[in-house]
């Protein structure tokens, strides 16, 4: 076991997600507390504030600190507006039609906002010196008003409105650059309705020349400025919501060549510049609002770009920013995920790619997983079930974190839950599948080579949703417990030891049982049952009699729509506790066991949206049980580290793909750290994500149990 002081960090090979305010739509990077580390700020559209995440320099961040802005903050920019050498914030507020200026204190905190009026529906704010007085000024796009407001800085953190300039239709975003080489900051404005970019050359006194408009792709929404062809002249990159990025090479006189368009993802809305593969050439990163990813286009150095490579982000990525968040000298990306109240961090590898979990095709709508050694090589494999395709697939593990292509092992089984054990005593892993379409459990006896015999079918209750394994009559043979959603009961099928099962015994639970788990809740050495009841918002505990029968259920309330449950000792008192995921309330309930079959009032902990599955493991090596939770509504996995007293630390979120429906734990690369496998059920995914645990440890590696235990044939 590791010393608990040595196990404070947690990391998986996947995008990392950090909670901010409600609906972040803009993200910027700067050093707000003067420690030389990259920090992050977001403008949060629905919470009237900005969130500041102070970086720790290792890819992690402190808890968000929120500071009030105006109504519906839409964009945030950074600058030193009062000349004190500290970073300040400017925030465009979409519905209060103003800009909030928050002066920095130099420690990561900010003074109360001062608001400066602009026009209707400001969507973007940019910083530049437009009147050559050395004080930063602001340019603000007013979407509905159809113009750009110029606010001249007084050098003390206040601003004076200097009028508006008009270019194209429905201006959306403004960027600053010197486009004609006169040393004065000019403006480039993306106009979402007229499908062009307006370039305003500045006269150096706070006024601007008449706009010159340059055609781009459909629905321009974001602009970035850089020299893409190495001629010393600034060029433009424009993210177009129609699905492309337009690159306009500058002529050096404020005019531009005709746009060249490059395909990106769905609904690109933000574009930033960086050297992501270390070749000294500038590349592009584009946040795609509808395809929930970031497109990276590597530059060729002549103003052209390679085809986009896409990396998954969270839901509805609105904005992307660049920084080195883990101090490795490689540029990383931070993405504002407008739907999830998170920012997603994609750590750069240095070759133009970004750290992400590998995905494996797993048929249509994979909904459940079971980890076991199905071919007898001592390495963990995955069994995947789908209620929609009515198939069970197996992915054989290579022992290095990778898996072979999925192979079909059973057809015609609407597997909504899987359990693994040795049902016929031959020392080979078998599978039991809750078959929702036939009110039965299908048992697949393993051949030991990754294949299975034809399924045997055994009756259960009405619409079985979950299956678990235990020895309920103390005969040394594996039995089954099945939660039946429509008949509000649990079926217990006693095993005969040859892979067959007796007729089911039925025991009442709550309303619409969704999941069942096995544990000894009263310390008598007999297996008991816990059942999550989706519609009665409680957990039924059925104490076993040791002969395959159970006492009447005792119910313990949780929050909303419990969808999954697991057993662990979360307060180290030697008694079995319960952890329950609650689909409707977006949290996890921990019920501490009293050791007599009863439980304390639940402790509740926030996770992502619509949690559907949870598993227990020691993910940071401190010897305490932690939880991993699959959140189907936010496309991520929440990991909650245990403290040892029954409480859990705030969730750390790691990205999966579409609609995570199930999470399982195993050591997939042989380093004795527990990794995660996540079944992603939505049509745009249909895969399993493997999140390799790369948490740094200073002591022995952990969790021998994360590898499948070898099965021993019964004598």
Summarize the structure in words:
With 715 residues, the protein is mainly β. Helix content is 0%, strand content 43%. The protein contains no helices and 56 strands. The strands form 13 sheets. The chain has an 8-stranded antiparallel β-sheet with strand order 26-27-28-1-53-52-51-50, with no helix packed on it. Strands 2-3-4-5 form a 4-stranded antiparallel β-sheet, with no helix packed on it. A hairpin with a 5-residue loop joins strand 12 (147-153) and strand 13. The model is unreliable at 1-8 and 698-706 (pLDDT under 50).
Structural class: mainly beta
Number of strands: 56
Rg from Cα: 29 Å
Count of DSSP H/I helices: 0
Shape: elongated
How widely separated are the two ends?
35 Å
Q: How would you write the strand order of the largest sheet?
A: 26-27-28-1-53-52-51-50
What ranges have pLDDT less than 50 throughout 5 or more consecutive residues? Answer: 1-8, 698-706
Helix content: under 10%
Strand content: 35-45%
Biggest β-sheet, characterized?
8 strands, antiparallel
Mean pLDDT across the residues is 94
Task: List key phrases describing it.
715 residues, four-stranded antiparallel β-sheet, mainly beta, eight-stranded antiparallel β-sheet, elongated, 0% helix, disordered N terminus, 43% strand
What topology does this entry show?
Layout (H helix, E strand, L loop, with lengths): L15 E4 L4 E7 L8 E6 L4 E5 L11 E4 L4 E7 L8 E6 L4 E5 L11 E4 L4 E7 L8 E6 L4 E7 L5 E7 L5 E7 L8 E6 L4 E5 L11 E4 L4 E7 L8 E6 L3 E5 L11 E4 L4 E7 L8 E6 L4 E5 L11 E4 L4 E7 L8 E6 L4 E5 L12 E3 L6 E5 L8 E6 L4 E5 L11 E5 L3 E7 L8 E6 L4 E5 L11 E4 L4 E7 L8 E6 L4 E5 L11 E4 L4 E7 L8 E6 L4 E5 L11 E4 L4 E7 L8 E6 L4 E5 L11 E4 L4 E7 L8 E6 L4 E5 L11 E4 L4 E7 L8 E6 L6 E5 L24
Antiparallel strand pairs: 1-28, 1-53, 2-3, 3-4, 4-5, 6-7, 7-8, 8-9, 10-11, 11-12, 12-13, 14-15, 15-16, 16-17, 18-19, 19-20, 20-21, 22-23, 23-24, 24-25, 26-27, 27-28, 29-56, 30-31, 31-32, 32-33, 34-35, 35-36, 36-37, 38-39, 39-40, 40-41, 42-43, 43-44, 44-45, 46-47, 47-48, 48-49, 50-51, 51-52, ...
């Amino acid at each position: 076991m590791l010393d608990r002081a040595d196990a404070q960090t947690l990391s998986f090979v996947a995008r990392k997600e950090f909670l901010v305010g409600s609906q972040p739509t803009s993200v910027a990077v700067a050093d707000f507390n003067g420690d030389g580390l990259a920090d992050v700020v977001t403008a949060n559209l629905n919470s009237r504030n900005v969130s500041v995440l102070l970086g720790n320099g290792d890819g992690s961040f402190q808890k968000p600190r929120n500071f009030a802005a105006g109504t519906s903050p839409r964009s945030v920019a950074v600058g030193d507006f009062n000349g004190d050498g500290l970073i300040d914030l400017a925030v465009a507020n979409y519905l209060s039609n103003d800009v909030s200026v928050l002066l920095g204190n130099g420690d990561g905190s900010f003074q109360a906002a001062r608001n400066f009026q602009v026009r209707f529906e400001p969507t973007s704010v940019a910083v530049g010196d437009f009147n050559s007085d050395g004080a930063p000024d602001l340019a603000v796009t007013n979407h509905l008003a159809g113009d750009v407001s110029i606010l001249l800085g007084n050098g003390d953190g206040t601003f004076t409105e200097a009028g508006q300039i008009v270019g194209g239709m429905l201006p959306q975003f403004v960027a600053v650059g010197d486009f004609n080489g006169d040393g004065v900051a000019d403006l480039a404005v993306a106009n979402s309705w007229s499908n062009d970019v307006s370039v305003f050359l500045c006269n150096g006194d706070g006024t601007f020349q008449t706009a010159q408009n340059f055609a781009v792709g459909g629905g321009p929404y974001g602009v970035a400025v850089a020299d893409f062809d190495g001629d010393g002249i600034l060029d433009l990159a424009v993210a177009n919501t129609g699905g492309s990025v337009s690159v306009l090479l500058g002529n050096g006189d404020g005019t531009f060549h005709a746009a060249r368009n490059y395909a990106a993802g769905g609904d690109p809305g933000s574009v930033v510049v960086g050297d992501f593969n270390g070749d000294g050439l500038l590349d592009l990163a584009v946040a795609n609002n509808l395809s929930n990813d970031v497109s990276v286009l590597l530059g060729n150095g002549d103003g052209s770009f390679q085809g986009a490579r896409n990396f998954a982000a969270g839901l509805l990525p609105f904005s992307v920013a660049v920084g080195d968040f883990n101090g490795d000298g490689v540029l990383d990306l931070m993405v504002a995920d407008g739907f999830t109240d998170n920012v997603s961090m994609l750590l750069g590898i240095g070759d133009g790619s970004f750290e992400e979990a590998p995905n494996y095709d797993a048929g249509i709508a994979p909904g459940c997983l079971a980890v076991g050694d199905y071919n007898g090589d001592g390495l963990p494999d995955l069994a995947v079930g789908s209620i929609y395709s009515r198939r069970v697939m197996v992915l054989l593990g290579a022992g290095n974190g990778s898996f072979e292509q999925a192979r079909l092992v059973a057809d015609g089984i609407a597997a909504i839950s899987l359990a693994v054990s040795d049902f016929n005593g031959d020392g080979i892993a078998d599978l039991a599948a809750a078959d929702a379409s036939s009110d039965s459990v299908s048992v697949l006896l393993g051949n030991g080579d990754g294949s299975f015999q034809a399924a045997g079918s055994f009756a259960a209750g009405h619409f079985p949703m979950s299956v678990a394994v235990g020895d309920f009559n103390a005969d040394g043979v594996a039995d089954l417990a099945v939660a039946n959603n429509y008949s509000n009961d649990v079926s217990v099928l006693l095993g005969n030891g040859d892979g067959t099962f007796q007729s089911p015994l039925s025991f009442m639970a709550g309303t619409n049982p969704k999941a069942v788990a096995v544990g000894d809740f009263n310390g008598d050495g007999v297996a008991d049952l816990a059942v999550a009841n989706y519609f009665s918002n409680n957990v039924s505990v059925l104490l076993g009699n040791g002969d395959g029968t159970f006492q009447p259920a005792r119910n313990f309330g949780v929050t909303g729509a419990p969808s999954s449950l697991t057993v662990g000792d979360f307060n180290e008192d030697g008694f079995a506790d319960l952890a329950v995921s609650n689909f409707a309330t977006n949290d996890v309930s921990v019920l501490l066991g009293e050791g007599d079959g009863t439980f304390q009032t639940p402790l509740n902990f926030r996770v992502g949206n619509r949690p559907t599955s949870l598993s227990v493991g020691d993910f940071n090596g401190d010897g305490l049980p932690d939880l991993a939770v699959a959140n189907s509504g936010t496309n991520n996995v929440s990991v909650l580290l245990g403290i040892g007293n029954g409480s859990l630390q705030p969730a750390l979120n790691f990205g999966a793909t579409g609609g995570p429906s199930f999470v399982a734990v195993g050591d997939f690369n042989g380093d004795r750290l527990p990794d995660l496998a996540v079944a992603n059920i939505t049509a745009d995914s249909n895969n399993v994500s493997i999140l390799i645990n790369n948490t740094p440890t200073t002591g022995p590696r952990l969790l021998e149990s994360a590898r499948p235990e070898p099965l021993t044939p019964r004598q």
